[in-house]
Amino acid sequence: MPTTDDQLDRAFAALADPVRRAIIARLSRGPATVNELAEPFQISKQAVSKHIQVLEHAGLVTRTRDAQRRPVHLNAGRLEAMTAWIDRYRLVHEQQFRKLDALLAATPDATGTDADTGNGTDTGTDNDTTQEQQS
């Protein structure tokens, strides 16, 4: 039985292809047959079937039998698992950014300007101006 990491690896690898992402986008509106999924692409139905097999192996889609039709369905549960994995890391990084924002807000202005008076504390000379005057 594949581990959660293996399942995620397969799902993300499957979505690396733009045709497969387009198929997922189409299936988000409802089930479709291979013929219906192949319509917008300039590739053979056989190639579309191979893309569907990759998506099926990744657990992103399923097929059912409805008399002569074999519609392809989106597996929303697998997409939710991927979203949950992404959200976990997004939330960690958002917390880190909030801490950084708070730290920066509590720190005096680091540009060399006194935040209270607006007076600069930089006492260095401008080398370009000095060199021009010497010429």
Topology:
Elements: H1 4-14, H2 18-27, H3 34-38, H4 45-57, E1 61-63, E2 72-74, H5 76-106, H6 127-134
Antiparallel strand pairs: 1-2
Q: Describe it for me?
A:
The chain is mainly α. Helices cover about 60% and strands about 5% of the residues. A two-stranded antiparallel ribbon has the order 1-2. The longest helix is centred in the last third of the chain and has 31 residues, at about 75-105. The radius of gyration is 28 Å and the shape is elongated. It starts with a helix and ends with a helix.
What is the β-strand count? Answer: 2
Structural class by secondary-structure content? mainly alpha
The secondary-structure element order is HHHHEEHH
Mean pLDDT: 83
Report strand %: under 5%
Count of helix runs: 6
Lateral strand order in the biggest sheet: 1-2
* Helical content (DSSP H or I, runs of 4+): 55-70%
Q: What characteristic shape results from the CA principal axes?
A: elongated
Which residues form runs of ≥5 with pLDDT under 50? none
User: CA-to-CA gap between the ends?
Assistant: 79 Å
Give a short account of the largest sheet: 2 strands, antiparallel
Assembly type: single chain
Gyration radius (Cα, Å) is: 28 Å
Short description:
With 135 residues, the chain is mainly alpha-helical.
Note the main attributes of this structure.
2 strands, single chain, 135 residues, two-stranded antiparallel ribbon, elongated, mainly alpha
